[in-house]
Amino acid sequence: MCGIVGYIGHREAYPIIIKGLKRLEYRGYDSAGLVLYDGKDLKLCKTKGKVSDLEEKVAKEISTEGHIGFGHTRWATHGVPNDVNSHPHFSNSGKLAIVHNGIIENYEPLKKELIKRGYVFHSDTDTEVLINLIEDVQKTDNLKLGKAVQVALNQVVGAYAIVVFDVNKPDELVCARLGSPLAIGIGEDEYFVASDASPFIEFTSNAIYLEDEEMAIIRLNKPMKVRKIKDDSLVDPYVQELQMNLEQIEKGGYEHFMLKEIYEQPNVIKDTYRGRLLANKGIIQMSGVEDNLEKFTNAKRILIIACGTSWHAGLVAEYVIEEFARIPVEVEYASEFRYRNPIINKDDVVIAISQSGETADTLAAIKLAKENGAFVFGVCNVVGSSISRETDAGAYTHAGPEIGVASTKAFTTQITILTLIALRLAKAKGTMNQSDYQRYLLELEMIPEKVQEALQTNDVAKQIAEIYKDVPNALYLGRGFNFPVALEGALKLKEISYIHAEGYPAAEMKHGPIALIDEQMPVIVIAPNKGHYDKVVSNIQEIKSRSGKIIAVVTKGDTQVKALADHVIEIPETSEALTPLLTTIPLQLLSYHIAVLRGCNVDQPRNLAKSVTVE
Ligand code: F6R
User: Fold this and answer.
1) pTM for this structure?
2) Distance from the CA of 511 to the center of ligand 1, in angstroms?
3) Are 584 and 571 in contact, with CB atoms under 8 Å apart?
4) Do β-strands 183-187 and 190-194 pair in parallel, antiparallel, or remain unpaired?
5) What residue numbers bound the domain in which 488 lies?
6) How far is 302 from 315, CA to CA, in rounded Å?
7) How far apart are CA 315 and CA 479, in angstroms?
8) pLDDT score of 385
9) Which protein residue's CA is at the shortest distance from atom 16 of ligand 1?
10) In the annotation, is 610 catalytic?
11) Which helix (H) or strand (E) is 304 found in, with range?
């Protein structure tokens, strides 16, 4: 939620900020703004709309000189997206400027108090309250900027990543974090600050990630100082070497990031199991699992917590872990789990799944599970993210940056890693015979090739999209391992094309949704030739006899469903438990093409943000 980019150094700050904001637009894109200081004037430009709108406005309104500045791309929390509510915000004196990602929960009492003290507010934001609180503290106690920020933050309840500038300290940026990420890139005589490292990877590969309740004072030509906000103690920050490269965060010839990321799946699934799956030797090795194998095998229950698409991956894992390792699994929405006084036992293993590693509800659920003594294992994509640091152990999915707001490759790589875990546990617990175990390992190794083949359904998916692009509703049905895929298919369609879609277990259709079916209603049925195939065929008959339009995802060579369905999309054969890795692909493509044909902004759907760092 919201992206921040700041720069201080010898280069012109503007190109770095504007390019960086474009890279961070996945975090929010309802308004954008920036400040630049040229040694004399503090120049502000902000606007409702996207970073490209900001760029146009800057060209008309301000000069872009300056070696220090910062910008913001917003996902509104307090106050509608408009020019005034956009960041940066100034203090009443006009001397302090701030950008903020997060929510100040106690902004109302703070604001009332500041109004009593004569402060005037122009926006509806909590951020403007914070910058005036900093100014008030600074004036009242005659403090330097860093100290004033620290004192003010100690009065604040909520979450924040902030960067603050004071015209009276023009060679300094002060930044701080609690609950929202902030990375600081360290170059030669220059520093970069950003919500993730993508805005500065072409300039430096050295970065530190501020921890919660830490602040940094960044001064030109001086070593950076990192302190604990609460007790002022100095911290020796860990300087990480970044793994990301420029190519990974650019579109590489594809029209949209989403399409690029769909097509990356064969490679990233391979990256996920590289070094972990040694199929010919019958070995699965993941240090996070090996080091804690007893905890996993002794677990009375595995609790999976996640949100959105990651929650759907968790549901697939429920089927796979229970089937392979015979450990009971419960899958919870993190947002519900954290507030419903859940029963957590010391011998529970909690698996938290998150692409971004920053989802506020998942992070809070992890903290709750840890407080109750559970061992928490993270499955994250973003290296060094808050969740990866908060968990006791974990495994990265290695999907590379996912920039399209709709999650695609994160989902299939999450399923891959969770399947590896299920197989490793099955071996350790002896719940699967050796020949099945070996067969699964070899089949898993062949999945990238089969995903590649499944991607050849692109043309068929596009043709089907042409036919159904204007429907108001769609129903997705699947059973067993493919029930979560039905949910995921429906989520993909609604979030990027704004068509109302629902996913259901196919057999549940009779208990209500069947009433929706008429000749207008496309029903996407996931019907691979395994598991409950015959039952799904019966469900298809039921739809057919009510004139519903059937789009079926079937295994290559299928004849029975083909004879009944209006359209079929064929995927290669694999074991039932691995089918979600293949059935997902045409559903992603179908949603993509429908959204493109409807003229929707595929990579940045309305109202959404990639990283949900507010609850
Ligand atoms: C949907 C989507 C979201 C995320 C959810 C959790 O395409 O991307 O539903 O899956 O916001 O995000 P992470 O996995 O980053 O915790």
Assistant:
1) 0.84
2) 29
3) no
4) antiparallel
5) 454-597
6) 12
7) 12
8) 86
9) 354
10) yes
11) strand 301-306
Residues 179 and 48 reside in one and the same domain: yes
CA 266 to each of CA 13, 244, 455, 560, 593: distance values in angstroms, whole numbers, following the listed order = 38, 19, 9, 29, 20
What residue ranges in 230-284 does DSSP mark as E strands? 234-235, 240-241, 277-278, 283-284
| Element (DSSP H or E) covering residue 388 | helix 386-390
Residues 6+ apart with CB under 8 A from 580: 316, 415, 481, 482, 484, 485
Q: Which of 407, 409, 406, 607 is nearest to 496 (CA)?
A: 406
d(CA 423, CA 434): 11
> In the chain, how many domains are there?
3
557 φ, ψ to 5°? 90, -5
Q: Are residues 350 and 412 in the same domain?
A: yes
Distance, in Å, from the CA atom of 284 to the CA atom of 287, rounded to the nearest integer, reads 10
Tell whether 222 and 317 lie within a shared domain: no
List, chain by chain if needed, residues with CB within 6 Å of any ligand 1 atom. 307-310, 354-356, 359, 362, 406-407, 491, 495, 612
The pLDDT, as a whole number, for residue 427 is: 97
What are the residue ranges in the chain where pLDDT is below 70?
A: none
Q: Is the dihedral of CA 155, 158, 159, 161 positive or negative?
A: negative
What are the structure tokens assigned to 371, written together? 């407080």
For 457-509, give the secondary structure using H, E and C: HHHHHHHHHHHHCCCCEEEEEECHHHHHHHHHHHHHHHHHHCCEEEEEEHHHH
**Domain contains 614:** no
pLDDT number for residue 92: 98
In a domain? residue 116: no
Query: Looking at ligand 1, which residue's alpha carbon is closest to its atom 8?
Result: 407
